[in-house]
Structure prediction request, 283 residues.
Amino acid sequence: MNKKIAWITDTAALLPESFIKEHSIHVLALNIVFEEGALRETVDMTHDEFYDKLRNSTLHPKTSQPAFGEHVALYENLKEQGYDCAIAIHTSEQLSGTVLSAPMAAEQAGFKSYVIDAKIGSYPMQVMLALGIELEKQGHAPEVIVEKIEAMRGKSELAFIPASLEQLHKSGRVSGMAMFLSNLLNIKLVIEYNKEGGVEVAKKVRADNRAKKAVIEKLEQAILKSPVNEVAIIHCNNEAGAIEWKKELLKDYPSIEFTPTPLSACVGVHAGEGTLGLTWVRE
Prediction:
């Protein structure tokens, strides 16, 4: 008899509402901590409200993982609903403590949970969930599903161009001198996830076009390894920029489906409004 599996993730994935409803996915909200206290992403504020607050905040906000009590309550609720177990896909351990809290919360609730460190955020987490849900429909055991999702991590890539270094400076990610020189010389950073799930500077270039070219080169390198059929054009409150970039990309890559996709507000806190990037999962 197939086990009844609950699917869990967090707002680092920023799943479309339609996807959440269609597959009954349970989403834990990450927190943005402003002066007045913590606000849960997508729950206590919309993204428009977040960026309004970010522009007007005198103190730079911080980010934090979901409250442990919320995590425990979710598992207890799933237990009451008759689920046999859960498969939880959370954003990289190097960027959030959510994936470390999950096993402890499940244990406290007395509920079986398989916790996966996605080692990335955004669109690839949705692809992992979609694969897992399809495998569940096919009748695979949770252990097999987890193994296949974890194998997908090595094919998932994400690179983005922070809109400016001001937010990274406020977040303590770069020095004031680096920010000053960047603004003076129009230096753009290309930041990517590494294999361990951390973020690092992949390239420093002058001008937006060169930064975009560096991200595209990363995509081209991926295509040489195995096909890439879908690419998310990720952005921080910059849908117009993402749509414009899509038009440019389609000229050179007409066989790829490009989809403008917003990033979590937690990325916006550090990377800044206007940020653009690309992410994909190879076949």
